[in-house]
Amino acid sequence: MIRRVVSLVVLGLIAFGLAAGHARSAELRIALSSEPSSMDPHFHNLASNNNIAAHVFEALTRFDSDQKLVPALAESWRLVDDTTWEFRLRKGVRFHDGSELTAEDVVWSLDRPATIKNSPGAFTLYTRQIIGKEIVDPLTIRLKTLTPYPLMLNDLTTVFIVSKKAAQGLASEEFAQGKGMIGTGPYRFVSFRRGERVELARNDAYWGAKPAWERATLRFITTDPSRLAALLAGDVDAIDNVPPADLAKIRTNTNLEVFSKVSNRVIYFTLDQGRDVTPFATDKAGKPLARNPFKDLRVRQAFSKAINREAIADRVMGGLGIPAANLVPGPMFGYNPALKVEPYDPDGARKLLADAGYLDGFALTIHGPNNRYVNDEQILQAVAQMLTRIGIQVKVEAMPLTVYFSRANKKEFSMALVGWGSQTGEVSSPLRSILATINPEKGMGTVNFGLYSNPKLDALLEEGLRTVDDGKRERLLQEAVAVAVMDVGLIPVHFQVVTWATRKGITYVPRTDERTLAQQFR
């Protein structure tokens, strides 16, 4: 009798273990290093927002893990004439509420970014070129541009298609409550707890490959030690942005797997060049400077020479950075091989400052996020020390990304750390967003925090955007990049190498665009 009871207990424990194992395989738990500022897929063009949205919503076109263009909600397209694109939608695609995707939803979604008020980073950059929309039939739409526009397919990867019926009339903040969160993507929205997590459920009616997990929980653990501790403790199955200092140790852990890739994201410093007086530059006694030092090219050049990019890549980033002289890494479209990384030259920097009238330097507060980019606060501190060596008295102010971007969008800072990844797979994305002269009507300069303006760059960019010949367009964009870099429109520092770590047995195909997508874990 006792033996029979013991056997039943053992069988029960085995059954419980199998059930527990099945429960674990039914849910994927991911810890993300940055959290979204908004759940509205059209409100703020921010990587952490777009990453969450890409689980629930889809665009007409999309990029694969290497940023090669592939069909998404549009199964095919063609040029009717030089300025008219025709898209054929997939048949039978349904939103999560069961309603069928039609061309009317597409038109409404492409119109919606222009109606968003007070966007910190507008998606109109990618919709402004469309001057006409024609619904040919429920599954066919034609988009008209004023001039030939070769980047149409690239731009459309950034604009998610939402259900007109579900989202019409909603304010952006209502999306966080689940209203309007009706997409066609591989996961359905379940809940959002700000500062904590997003919970998703598999869309079993999805038109494409089904995710491996029934549920996905995306937790926001923005501090590196806590995120890694959660993985080591088994509280999560995967993390993004492995702490560089722990990378070697993690690679030797037989219970974990690591995946990495050079990303398209350039980490750079933006400098206030638009105002005659800049708010965070003073003399060393704290008195505001009579003129903005960053309006002088020699000062901007001095700051660039003062930054030791190799040291940042090796020591601060632990090898997870590639010193940058461009806005996109090679061999992406528009990379300019003629541009070389600025050599570290503190003596040359001090001479330039003296020539500009700042023999004794000045005082400066530099700003940046402390939970957005890999080792962002450490980069700020390292650069502060480097600037101190050329006579700049530097104070660092780092803050959570939600606070930081709210202030950066108001152009509050004199010098700030920012990152930009090319959403369109080529260099026109950063040129248009972070360097073009601010022009809301054209959708240009939407994230130009430094108020930089250069007519030559603008002219080259605009000509490139309407040039159909790929070779000629790339040469124009490369020249525009050279203009920006030589004029120190911003200071490129490095390209991030992004990493993911998982429990053994779980794999991930690393992505150039840095996205961490639950549907791509296996």
Mean pLDDT reading: 93
CATH topology-level fold name of the largest domain: Dipeptide-binding Protein, domain 3
The main pleated sheet reads as: 12 strands, mixed
Question: Percent of residues in helical segments?
Answer: 25-40%
C-alpha geometry: globular
Q: How many H/I helical runs? A: 15
Query: Any idea what the radius of gyration is?
Result: 25 Å
At CATH level 2, the architecture of the largest domain is Roll
- Beta content comes to 15-25%
CATH superfamily of the largest domain: Dipeptide-binding Protein, Domain 3
Distance between the termini: 45 Å
Return residue spans where pLDDT drops below 50 for at least 5 consecutive residues.
Answer: 1-24
Write structural notes for this entry.
With 522 residues, the chain is α+β, with helices and mostly antiparallel strands. It folds into two domains: 34-170, Dipeptide-binding Protein, Domain 1 (Dipeptide-binding Protein, domain 1, Alpha-Beta Complex), CATH 3.90.76.10; 263-496, Dipeptide-binding Protein, domain 3 (Roll), CATH 3.10.105.10. The chain contains 15 helices and 18 strands. The protein has helices at 2-26, 47-56, 103-111, 152-155, 164-167, 224-232, 247-251, 297-306, 309-316, 346-355, 376-388, 401-409, 428-435, 455-465, 470-486; strands at residues 27-32, 61-63, 69-71, 74-81, 84-89, 130-137, 140-145, 187-193, 197-202, 215-220, 238-240, 256-271, 281-282, 321-323, 363-369, 393-399, 415-421, 491-503. Strands 1, 8, 9, 10, 11, 12, 13, 14, 15, 16, 17 and 18 form a twelve-stranded mixed β-sheet that branches. Helix 8 packs antiparallel against helix 10, helix 13 (428-435) runs antiparallel to helix 14 and helix 14 (455-465) packs antiparallel against helix 15. The radius of gyration is 25 Å and the shape is globular. The chain starts with a helix and ends in a 19-residue tail after the last strand.
